[in-house]
Amino acid sequence: MKDKKEQIKLLLEAMVVGLFSGFVVGFFRFGIGKMTELWLNLFHVAHRNALWFIPIVIGLALVGLIAGYFVKKYPHVGGSGIPEVKLQLAGNLTLKWWPTLWRKVIGGILVISTGLFLGPEGPSLQIGSTIGQGIGEGTKESKTNSRVLLATGAASGLAAAFGAPLSGALFVLEEVFHNFSPRIWLNALAGALVSDFVVSNIFGQKPSLSLVYRHSFPVKLYGYLLVLGLILGLLGHLYKVGLFKGKKIYAKITFLPSWLYGLIPLTLLIPIAYFWPLITGPGNRLILALPHIIRHSSWKIVGLLLFFFIVRIAFSIISYDSGLPSGIFLPILTMGAVIGASYGLMLVQLHLLPAKLVINLIIFAMAGFFAAVIRAPFTAIMLITEMVGSLLHLMPLAVVAFIALLVDMLLNGDPIYGTLARAMSSKSKNDVPIISGKTDQLTVPIYEDSRLAGKEIMQVKWPKHTLVKAIYRDGQYVVPNGQSIIKAGDSLVLTLDAGQRGHVFSQIKRMQKVEYDG
User: Fold this and answer.
1) Is the confidence at residue 516, as pLDDT, over 50?
2) Which helix (DSSP H) or strand (DSSP E) does residue 478 occupy?
3) In terms of C-beta density within 10 A (0-12 exposed, 13-18 middle, 19 or more buried), how is residue 499 classed?
């Protein structure tokens, strides 16, 4: 009875996390929208009067200085924030929630609204996670429940950003937390639903991408989907390689301190926003314009779209690697959409595909590029399904996402957020774990290829100060003994010292020889 009351209490707290996340992310999206209109108007009037470039240059410089100063004072405000959330949930990073929250909100609005090829979804996830962390601290929850609320906030923030609650919860389970236990998914989904309700009904904000198509993709044309998946996998791999190398190039810059790197993309933005305003920003305006662009099918339009893609992929890398507070979710979907449109129009010009099916390829390509880059295929499929609002595309969507993911895996591509999290962790690694004297809990899923599967608990050399408290199997918690056999599909509930959680988590990963971040 006590456990049930605790579960209900945690669920109510998760809904409160969703409520606050919805309000804050709703304001975040509203602020970005209004500031974006301001910047677009400034560049528009600059076409008629060049003197308007003076406030444009001053304004962009101020954005770079303010956002850069935030990152200088609190480095984990930079970037999307998703690697930070992964490290927090693994016990390898501790952040103060309030300094992160307000800096991320203000910095994100200032940066994303300028027109840089950056998106609000990653920052929204971190904003939600800080709210979950704050509520966990305010209610004095246990370490385990506090992490549940942090994960709930992450799901709620992403749901509010995309207007897609199922995808928000699924992404946190699939890519961020890697834990599908009932305690996690139930609370994450509850928070995501509440936050989506807030942004939809109070702020009146709808899904950021709403594409409509009326024709299913014929099975006889699936061969074209295999080629599309191959293209997306190759380009997605290239994009990730560019992101990782871009950070190294920035590190070699000596004429600017690292906290002012954002001034570089902000300077390059001026000619892009002046000549091609449609392609600026996260990319939702460009995606929504694609159905109108593809009506004028010609090789000239194909060339224009390929040019847009080259600019988008190059400037997205330059923008993100500068370290400004921002994300790449929506820019990734935008690149996928442009690839799909270009490929589809090529097939139309070669008389291999009816023009009415190009919109299908745009939708499929968004999921495929997302799956290749983020390495979260289920989230990719669910996200596009929620945005489109139809299940007709499910099979071809899954085919493209699977092929793109497979290509990246064959090329030894790394999961982008896992790689960034490892790089971040290595910079602040503490080889001597702290003994805090406080008890914590860690839930470890056992996969089919885990080296722990099939072993008795007593046969495993567990990390110091770690005990197997319970085994979650077939919907029930089992109290184990030394002869209990660990099976694939189990989740082990470990008790450990709170100061050693990150250290134990890393040791268990090595013992299992399983790459959670894939």
Assistant:
1) no
2) strand 476-478
3) middle
Burial class (CB in 10 A: 0-12, 13-18, 19+), 363: buried
Kindly state the helix (H) or strand (E) to which residue 496 belongs, with its residue range. strand 491-497
CB 306 within 8 A of CB 258: no
How high is the pLDDT of residue 202?
86
Q: Which domain holds residue 452?
A: 433-512
H-assigned helices in 258-298: 263-275, 284-293
468 membership: H or E segment, kind and range: strand 467-473
pLDDT tens digits for 470-499?
888 777 788 888 888 888 778 888 887 777
Q: Examine the pLDDT at 367 and tell me if it is beyond 90.
A: yes
What is the overall mean pLDDT for the chain?
A: 88
- CATH (domain of 193): 1.10.3080.10
User: Are 182 and 223 found together in one domain?
Assistant: no
* Chain-centroid distance, C-alpha 315: 19
Give residue for tokens 């314009």: 289
Q: What distance separates the 2 farthest-apart alpha carbons in the chain? A: 80
User: Mind listing the pLDDT tens digit for each residue in 30-83?
Assistant: 999 999 999 999 999 999 999 999 999 999 999 999 999 999 999 999 999 999
Backbone angles phi, psi at 80, to 5 degrees: -80, -30
- In three-state secondary structure terms, 513 is coil
The whole model's pTM is what? 0.86
Determine, yes or no, domain membership for 332: yes
With beta carbons less than 8 A apart as the criterion, state whether 127 and 157 touch: yes
Whether the CB-CB separation of 188 and 18 falls below 8 Å is answered with no
